[in-house]
Amino acid sequence: MTVDSVDSVSAEGFARTSLAVLDRIAVSARDEVRRAAELIADCVRSGGVVQAFGTGHSQAVVLEVAGRAGGLVPTNRLSIADLVLYGGDDPSVLDDPLLERRSGVAARLYDLAAPQAGDLFVIVSNSGVNNVIVEMALHAKDQGHRVLAVTSLSHTRAVPASHPSGRKLADIVLDNAAPRGDALLGLPDGGAVCALSTLTGVMLVQMAVAEAAAHLLAAGERPPVYVSANVPGGFEGNLELEKRYSGRIRRTAS
Fold this sequence. Notes:
Strand order of the largest sheet: 2-1-3-4-5
Number of strands: 7
Mean pLDDT: 92
Helix content: 25-40%
Order of helices and strands: HHEHEHHEHEHEEEHH
């Protein structure tokens, strides 16, 4: 819910309001996080890879899932830029501001990633309605993958979907509790400032990763996690772990 008090439009107001939301979802999302963690742990235990996808600012949360220090090694980031990096498209294709709404893009990105049967898809989208997001979820489901979505239920329930599908898109949904439009602090003459979904999305996926690690430890397995490449031996140790998933995860400079 957007906060409309003028007094709240300040650094202190954003901190106070956003921290209250984080405190709330830490409790309210507990069951969904536990179920999400079970999907992640099952994927890792079976030798699968967590395929994470999002567009726009949702990519910030995707980066929390795939290829970061303290995160799981068997993770792969899918991006619209893959059309150029791996698909051979001219870079000018990325100049299209409506690319994420074009039909057929998701299937191409899926094929370029070449997921295996046991891979889990984590799809991050605050609105949850753009065509490429919906089609990626549907395509992954059609190929037999489990799908975990991170989205704002307040937003998705308030706006019409851009894809005409009534199908269930995800096995588990983590609600980031962001308001419709994402911005948290209402302005006096309309509109709002300061987006929330990145903070809450990061909170949710890190909770799920922590719980998944707990599942693996309880089963007597050491979670395959990255060490910061900026500590002695970190880079070399990470390379050894990545060899288990050779050809299945991408680690580029970006």
